[in-house]
Amino acid sequence: MKRMYPLRFFTQTVRLSALGLCLVFSALNAQDSDSSEGSALNDRSSSADATERRIQSNAHFAAGIGFEAKGQIDAAAKELLLAVDVDPNNIALILRVADKLLEWRLPTISLQILEKAGQSDMATVEIFVRKGITLKTLGKNDEALAAFTAALEISPGNAQARQELVATKLKDKDLTGALTLVRDGVALPSLAADQLIGLVASYLQIIATSPNLLTELKDEFVVLLERTEKFSLSSPEQEVTLADGFIFVGFPEKAKALLQSVVQTAPNTALAREKLVDLYLREGLIADAVAELNTLIEQNPKNPSAHYLLGSIAADAEEYDKALEHYEKAIEARPEFEPPYYEMVGIHLNTRQPRKALRLLAQARSRFPKRFLGEFYTGIALASLRRTEEALKYLLEAESIGAQQSPERLSSFFYFQLGSMLERNGQYSKAEEKFLKCLESNPEDPETLNYLGYMWAEQGKKLKQASVWITKALELAPESAAIQDSMGWLLYQQGEYKKALPYLLNAEAGLEEADPVILDHLGDTYHALGKKSKAIESWKSSLELEFNERVFEKIQGESRNDRSVTE
After folding, report:
1. Please, are residues 300 and 270 in contact by the beta-carbon 8 Å criterion?
2. 74: burial class by Cβ within 10 Å (0-12, 13-18, 19+)?
3. Mean pLDDT, the chain, whole residue set
4. Contact predicate 514/541, CB 8 Å
5. From CA 355, how far away is CA 364, in angstroms rounded?
6. Is the pLDDT of residue 99 over 70?
7. Ramachandran area for residue 284 (φ above 0: left; ψ -120 to 50: alpha; else beta)
8. What is the b/e burial string over 80-95, where b = at least 16 CB atoms within 10 angstroms of the residue's CB?
9. CB contact at 8 A, 71 and 38
10. Please, is 540 exposed, middle or buried when counting C-beta atoms within 10 Å of its C-beta (0-12, 13-18, 19+)?
11. What is the spatial distance between Cα 162 and Cα 166, in angstroms, rounded to a whole number?
């Protein structure tokens, strides 16, 4: 009579060691059984072996993670490779091991196990995708492209493989090829949410690379976005990607609704809050932006971007102490974050604290490469301290850097500052050249027209052309005391003393605080008109505001003349 083993005995044997399993199945195989019973037992043996392999591979994987925690990466890698050797058909395990090896910067070993897995009948699309990523890490771009192409052949809807291929095409500046890949993906039937959002991400890649294509692609992109939003997306990150799409095509309200939903259901999704802040700032909703930024700081007190933006908002509101506090926290959280340094410098310059600005610029210069802003702000700070020769050197260096790296920074404002510094250093022809550059982009700027005209009027040169510039400036800004003074001084230099006096008196009256230069010009004009007492009175008032040796000599000269007449 055959001995039949109850099912519960078989299930218990699964828990035995490998040696126990071998003994059990040897005993079973020794029994005189018919072919069907033998087949069933062989299936059971195969299942038990698979389970045992799974147990052993998991043990090796766990041991590898343990070694990783101790910083013993070599030992960890050996354990993970043993895990794959024990259970070579476990695709999920192979993918986990490959990812770990990449994380540990062992791409060559990762590639070896993926290559082997890719040759088996059980190879999946994920194996080829990981293989492609690993090959990219190794710089083998052509082989990576082949792996991603193979993945897409296995599963045309695979979002990651298609995105990688699109990225490769864009890197090769093959926009047509990238667009074809995306449009082929959109044309696939019955796409799932993950596949659709992958295509959205690819469209965003293309538009970010070539913004001018947005007009051409907008209609088809909108169709894809509206198709995608009908699905429930699997992660907050995917919802943020969809919101990005709506931002690009000009539907900020849809984007805002998506992002607001994300921060309600997944409050710790910082990226969603950051994008909400951007939308709020674009719409001028400052209070809403500040609320989101404060939440980001509550979640992460050392969030440099949040502190930086709060600093910028405070600076715009001229709350400089608050702005400086946030900028300092941004730098403390991330010392290599460069923009806060220059924002703080700007505040120090605006509040007339050039020495503080220079100290901060020295810190930035020791940490970062030479930048346009660093050189420009240094020049401005030195100019405010009347260190004009040094200031000019830095402004010229800023011009050189700007011309090479960022020509857009060489604005009319920049050229005005450079022109004025050249003028202060007596380089009048070069100063004129820079002022004319200002006028190329802003021909109706009364300040530049006035400075250029006054520069030559002060020198008593090019008076005809100076008259053209100052006259135009006065037409554009008739109430300007500075321009009234320039016109008066130009007329004085032309010998038109009577015509000059009304302009100079208007200039004096137009200022809330007296100006030593205007008072000096008034004194000279009174003196030319024979009104010596008024001339001396004006010169003395000028001297009380600011000592000037030339003005002092004028007063002394009149005193000597008076003594000479008396004698």
Report:
1. yes
2. exposed
3. 89
4. yes
5. 14
6. yes
7. left
8. bbbbbebbbebbebbb
9. no
10. middle
11. 6
